[in-house]
């Protein structure tokens, strides 16, 4: 018997296969082996500072998904230099924490992250990258995020 979380993830997986998102590639083989761990490749959009670059995201889901957000981090050797992405791959994005809603999906998260990358005008780390990466939990969901843009 499959759990509600697993049914939802399978539905999202099938939707992404049927209607792929430009610049987003899912690792279907890995997902078939473990529905709770997804690897997704994001390709930098044309005309942006990340044009043609590829980045890998890891989504980890618990049995409370979609009522609880997935853990989403960049993995691998090519972590984008961005003012909301830490050098350890953690992403400061409100929809991954307090603004999460069950109406969101893997596809919506990927679109948000690709949009966030596309809007960047320079490659830089968050101002607190060094301190954060030395003191943070391995799980980004345990971080109480402070959104620097909120003070603008």
Number of strands: 4
**Overall residue-averaged pLDDT value:** 92
DSSP summary: helix tally: 4
Subunit organisation of the chains: single chain
CATH class: Alpha Beta
Counted up, domains total: 1
How far do the termini sit from each other? Answer: 49 Å
Question: Ranges with pLDDT <50 over ≥5 residues?
Answer: none
Alpha-beta classification: alpha+beta
CATH superfamily: Ubiquitin Conjugating Enzyme
The radius of gyration is 15 Å
Helix content: 25-40%
Looking at the structure, what is the overall shape? Answer: globular
At the third CATH level, what is the topology name? Answer: Ubiquitin Conjugating Enzyme
Level-2 CATH architecture: Roll
Task: Looking at this protein, list some descriptive labels.
152 residues; alpha+beta; Ubiquitin Conjugating Enzyme; four-stranded antiparallel sheet; 4 helices; 14% strand; EC 2.3.2.23; transferase; UBQ-conjugating_enzyme/RWD
